[in-house]
Specification:
The complex is a heterodimer of chains A (284) and B (198).
Chain A lengths: L1 H7 L2 H20 L8 H14 L5 H10 L3 H9 L10 H15 L5 E6 L5 H12 L6 E7 L2 H9 L1 E3 L3 H10 L10 E4 L2 E4 L1 H4 L2 E5 L11 E6 L8 H14 E9 L14 E5 L4 E4 L4
Parallel strand pairs in A: 1-2, 1-7, 2-6, 7-8
Antiparallel strand pairs in A: 3-5, 4-5, 8-10, 9-10
Chain B lengths: L11 E6 L3 H8 L11 E5 L9 H8 L3 E4 L10 E4 L5 E5 L3 E5 L11 H12 L3 E5 L8 H9 L3 E5 L8 H9 L4 E3 L1 H16 L1
Parallel strand pairs in B: 1-2, 1-7, 2-4, 3-4, 7-8, 8-9
Antiparallel strand pairs in B: 5-6
Helix pairs in contact in B: 3-4, 4-5
Classes of the chains: A alpha/beta (284), B alpha/beta (198).
């Protein structure tokens, strides 16, 4: 009888059940809500976690999650994606510089929200860009993420020196008005970014899945975060961005992300279409 | 080995290629007619730092719709989707397309393994996976995942590949795969087309 039940349920089915149970356990125990994440990419990272933690099944991961203190913070690093570089997609930053900055300049004080800032590369890129444009001293950048460990790294602003060549090339292609080396000190294989940039940045724990709007901002930059969400969660995040943005505020998303399949599409107009920069539409 | 019968067995096709891939795809895709009813997802390794021209190039040569994959786009039958440069392409429930900026896999983003493994999850035994010419080991694991899910695996005959490394790696990892030259693969795809038309 058991054998029959076994053969009736292909392994994929078990995986599906185990996946849902694990996501639910994470939510109930730690209040991190991955239920609205795109399953395809999350499952891939969970497979990597199974290899890393030497677990044969997701149920074994779940057992450790529930019964082993500290396991969740290790697992969280597999569930979030800390892959970024400074000035990634230089054309995006060039478009911010040439098209958005002139309008930001008209505000006496500027607020920017980098949502899903991970280890901080995008935050420092924006800070440097705003410094170059003479705006950083009247800007406050909110940098938020769900992973406290990556937030800590972001706040430290320390990166491997072997990544600096790429960062520098990207920076130059973004229409740089200075040299990236003006903003860091390199020692012992690491580049430590200037503390004065950090004075204008507030790092904070915030979830696009469960938290609400905390400030009014002129610019939201949220790149390669929405691709990890399903459509409902994308809609929720975009709703937060719309609510956070001031009248005619700007939203920048990843170069392969779009609002096309979102219920919030009507809330934004193309501003720099090819760089996925949108402007909040006035309610008609 | 003779060509497998695809009669009514295939809901989707995934193709992976690297060096020499554009020429190989030029043999495979243009003959497909407008009534080709199966979606095709393709990872072709490209430079990560500039836009891809593939969708435009193949659109002009093909009867089927060819486009660059967009995140959260629902899968349409008879459409060819190319993974965009610097993003992994995955198939998610729906089925719909899903992009990811995760770390490189086999030095590649997009990675063939990532596409194949996610498509195997969604389509299971109703997936056809094809590995073409290339200078990399990407795709060997993905093809194994398709096989494990009961899908059909095809590898380009190494002597007919412009660059052999990718097909040889795939073959070592998946010795039970069907091995066909480009004309064999092309004939196989067109068989599928007749099934759809019938």
């Amino acid at each position: 009888m058991d054998a029959e039940i076994d053969s009736a349920a292909p392994p994929g089915k078990h995986w599906e059940i185990e996946y849902r149970l694990l996501i639910e356990a994470i939510y109930q125990m730690y209040h991190y809500d991955f239920r609205g994440y795109a399953a395809a990419s999350l499952k891939r990272r969970l497979r990597a976690a199974m290899v890393r933690f030497d677990c044969r099944t997701l149920s074994q991961i779940q057992d450790r999650l529930i019964n082993e203190p500290g396991f969740f913070s290790a697992l969280l690093n597999f569930l979030t994606v800390p892959v970024s570089e400074m000035f990634r997609d230089p054309a995006y930053f060039r478009a911010l510089r040439e098209r958005v900055v002139p309008l930001l300049r008209t505000y006496p004080s500027i607020k920017v929200w980098v949502a899903g800032c991970s280890t901080g590369e995008e935050v420092y890129s924006l800070a440097i860009l705003l410094r170059e444009e003479g705006l950083l001293e009247r800007t406050l950048i909110y940098a938020t993420d769900i992973n406290p460990q990556t937030l800590e790294k972001a706040e430290a602003g320390v990166y491997d020196v072997d990544r600096i060549a790429t960062f520098t090339e990207n920076h130059q292609r973004s229409g740089a008005r200075s040299s990236l080396s003006d903003y860091y000190v390199a020692a012992y294989g690491r580049a430590v970014f200037d503390k004065s940039l950090r004075r204008r940045i507030v790092f904070s724990d915030h979830s696009l899945a469960t938290d609400s709007v905390f400030a009014e901002v002129q610019l939201v930059s949220c790149r390669n975060v929405l691709i990890y969400f399903n459509r409902d969660l994308q809609d929720r995040a975009l709703r937060l961005f719309r609510e956070a943005l001031c009248r005619k505020g700007f939203l920048g998303i990843g170069s392969k992300e779009s609002l096309r399949f979102s219920s919030e599409a009507g809330a934004f107009d193309d501003f720099v279409r090819e760089e996925r920069i949108f402007q909040k539409r006035d309610p008609s | 080995m003779s060509a497998p019968s695809l009669a009514g067995r295939v809901d989707a096709i995934v193709i992976g290629a690297s060096a020499g891939g554009v020429e190989a795809l030029m043999t495979l895709l243009p003959p497909l007619s407008e009534s080709f009813g199966v979606p095709i997802f393709i990872v072709l390794h490209l430079p990560r730092d500039r836009p891809s021209l593939l969708a435009g190039i193949f659109s002009r040569k093909c009867h089927v719709t060819v486009c660059e994959a967009q995140d959260k786009e629902p899968v349409r039958p008879g459409t060819v989707y190319f993974a965009p440069p610097d993003y992994h392409l995955l198939i998610d429930e729906g089925p719909q397309l899903c992009l990811a900026a995760d770390e490189l896999v086999c030095h590649s983003r997009p990675s063939i393994d990532v596409l194949f493994e996610s498509a195997a999850d969604i389509y299971g035994p109703r997936l056809l996976g094809i590995i073409l010419t290339g200078a990399n080991e990407d795709g060997a694991e993905g093809l194994a995942a398709i096989h494990a899910a009961g899908g059909i695996t095809v590898i380009q005959q190494p002597d007919s590949a412009q660059v052999k490394q990718m097909v040889v790696s795939a073959l070592i990892r998946n010795p039970g795969s069907h091995v066909l030259d480009l004309h064999g693969i092309s004939a196989l795809l067109r068989t599928l087309e007749r099934d759809v038309a019938a």
